[in-house]
Design a protein that fits this description.
Layout: H1 2-24, E1 28-34, E2 39-46, E3 57-59, H2 63-71, E4 75-77, H3 91-97, E5 101-109, E6 112-121, H4 129-152, E7 159-160, E8 163-164, H5 171-190, H6 194-208, H7 221-231, H8 236-243, H9 247-261, H10 266-275
Antiparallel strand pairs: 1-2, 1-6, 2-3, 4-5, 5-6, 7-8
Helix pairs in contact: 1-4, 5-6, 5-7, 7-8, 7-9, 7-10, 8-9, 9-10
Pfam family, one: GerE
Domain HTH luxR-type: 212-277
InterPro entries: GAF, GAF-like_dom_sf, HTH-type_RamA-like, Sig_transdc_resp-reg_C-effctor, Tscrpt_reg_LuxR_C, WH-like_DNA-bd_sf
């Protein structure tokens, strides 16, 4: 059970790093896992040129990541070795890798820092507010993924407060939940009575409410309908028939969704929507 959760967490982290690199164009993305109470270890990375930072251990308060771990707040520096907001024990390894600008954001699950999400560049350029916002949003999505993994793998009989948790759903059962959610959205789309349609949409929302997060990206009801069709494996033509609209309109909704979620394919969009709690 625990080994499966670890694998799921590693997959979620790897996906977050790839999505972040694609969304920002920043060449280096990294994740440092909290090991013990006051230490980090860089466990996954994309774009590093040397092994200097690979598997590096960092104490709380040290450098960018250590400061984030200590303060639980994002930190960004445009010239690492000259920055006055951090300590400089790590200057030599940063210079070995050749990084200049770095942004780091905490990943917090159940009020505990689980890790640090980094982006960095090998040139002396300032990473702007949009990049920092993108890193923060990716961290929030990753937090949800890690929380879901923990909940899905919680052993039977474990209690939260006074409420007993149901056993964890297996993969096939999760797919059934997702399929039911998509079909409910399609059913709501065909209902003419406003009150019944709203009730069905509320039921759809309740299916993702336990893992809902505050979304920077807002998807419209029709965009969610299109994603629900895609999640069922429908083509654009099949989705158009299901929703009673034209195939070009489906394409337009899908392009809008992919742009909002920073996705490059329709299936990346479905996965991104699931990460932010818009789909189960």
């Amino acid at each position: 059970m625990e080994s499966q959760r670890i694998r799921d967490d590693e997959d979620a982290i790897r996906s977050a790093l790839s999505s972040l690199k694609n969304a920002t164009g920043i060449p280096v993305t990294m994740y440092a896992t909290v090991v013990g109470e006051n230490r980090l270890q860089i466990s996954q990375w994309i774009g590093l040129r040397t092994p200097a930072l690979q598997n590096l251990c960092i104490d709380s308060g040290v450098g960018v990541g250590g400061r984030v771990l200590k303060t639980r707040r994002p930190v960004g520096v445009s010239d690492y070795t000259r920055a006055n907001v951090i300590s400089h024990e790590m200057d030599s390894v940063i210079q070995d890798e050749g990084l200049h600008s770095i942004v780091a954001v905490p990943v917090i699950v159940h009020r505990e820092v689980r890790g640090i999400l980094y982006v960095g560049v090998h040139s002396p350029v300032r990473l702007g507010d949009k990049v920092i916002e993108e890193v923060a949003m990716t961290a929030r999505v990753l937090e949800q993924d890690l929380a879901i993994n923990a909940a899905a793998r919680r052993p039977e009989g474990v209690r939260t407060g006074s409420m007993k948790q149901n056993r964890a759903l297996n993969g096939a059962e999760w797919e059934q939940v997702r399929s039911t959610h998509s079909k409910l959205r399609m059913l709501a789309n065909r209902i003419e009575q406003e009150d019944i349609r709203q009730e069905l949409e509320e039921l759809c929302d309740q299916m993702v409410a336990p893992v809902q997060v505050k979304q920077t990206t807002k998807l419209s009801a029709r965009e969610l309908d299109v994603l629900s069709c895609v999640a069922l494996g429908h083509t654009n033509v099949e989705a158009a028939e299901e929703m009673g609209i034209g195939a070009e309109t489906v394409k337009s909704y899908l392009r809008s969704v992919m742009r909002k979620l920073g996705a490059h394919t329709r299936y990346e969009a479905v996965n991104a929507a699931r990460r932010i709690g818009a789909l189960p």
